[in-house]
Amino acid sequence: MPSKLNVLNTRSYTDVKRLPSKYKKKATIISFLMIPLSGFVTDIYAPSMPTMATELHQSESSIQLTLTLFLLSYAIVQFFAGSIMDSYGRYRITILALCLFILSNIVIAVSTSIEPIYAMRVLQGVAIGCIGVSKRSFFVDVHDGEARKNYLSIMSIVWSIAPIIAPFIGGYLQHYFNWQASFYVLAGYATLLLILELFFSGETVREFRPFNRATIIKDYGIMLRTPMFVFGVICSGLCYGTIMVFNLSGAFIIEHGMGFPPLVAGYASLAMGIAWLSGGFIGKALINKPFIPKLRVASLLGIGVTLLMIFSANGLENIYTMLFFAFLVHVGVGFIFNNYFAYCIGRFPKMAGISGGFIGGSAFFLTSISSYAIVGAVHPSSQIGLGISYLSLGLLILIIVQFLIKPEKVISE
């Protein structure tokens, strides 16, 4: 006899707007358009951070905290969002999250003090965390077999588009308007996505899972007893933390330290985004190569480049050398992230929501803590400082892929 909870789930969701099969391709495209939202939220206002510090009469660390607060709430909510969506669906939560995200951007844009911005960044983390879990799970819900594997790899690349175009757009918005323009643009983009989602999407959960403590604990237990998966989550968080180190410090180094305008900071972030995307493309091109050996080679090359970045600065340091070495570092972590994150997302297809939430929550919690801690400890203000920050995270990645993950654990996942 079915439990009362199962009966309630069935009754509550017989009237849910399901994804029509004729809209499967459109919904897939919409999901790809939503995947970069988290990157847009973190990167588009990076060139405006120095101006925000000046106009809001805040220190650099206070403005950097707006990014860390977003990443923390974005991470934490995903621990809960996955299991909730597996039990109660993804579609209506996604719609609500988009509405909250639109509202939060408008509030930030009209704020004249830092406190409302902090609050709205936390709210944005919650909203984007829910959207991220929903749309990562979408590809597991809707696609199977090789198509799923292919889409998950493409998803990582699409996600990488945001770090490329967001700071580039943000640099021009800062140059021609002001820092508020970035948040108005985010609100407009989210409004378009909301309209598309309402017309061409729907619920994708194939079978609602009972929402109870025993089931959730069991699911988490399965994931935590899979070392390859756990190390993948940690490694993914450290890889993206490397990107966040540049986001937190790059604009201040370029604008305050080197005296360049925000447009240059935007172009620099554009280059770093291209590096991340290039790593993703290389990862997809080598998708059928032995998994662990390619990660080990990439991590060793990354350490070598970082050491060159640090020691060469004694005789040659300018914006071009700094960005050259940073570019190579970002290619390497983009490559590792693409491979390992795609593996983790597809590892547990029968509990896509909760595993997706665990991956996103854990990885981005590590991203926020590691990047803010490294930047706070090192205070990178030059090529050497940035290189030391990269090296700190690169050594942790090296330990994972060289010594902790074991080849025999990779079994036709």
UniProtKB/TrEMBL annotation:
The chain crosses the membrane at residues 27-46, 61-81, 93-112, 118-139, 151-169, 181-200, 228-254, 260-283, 295-313, 319-341, 353-378, 384-405. Keywords: Membrane, Transmembrane, Transmembrane helix, Transport. It is found in: Membrane. It comes from Flagellimonas aequoris. GO terms for biological process: xenobiotic detoxification by transmembrane export across the plasma membrane. Pfam families: MFS_1. This is MFS transporter. Residues 27-409 form the Major facilitator superfamily (MFS) profile domain. Its main location: membrane. GO terms for molecular function: sodium:proton antiporter activity. It is a multi-pass membrane protein. One of its GO terms (cellular component) is plasma membrane.
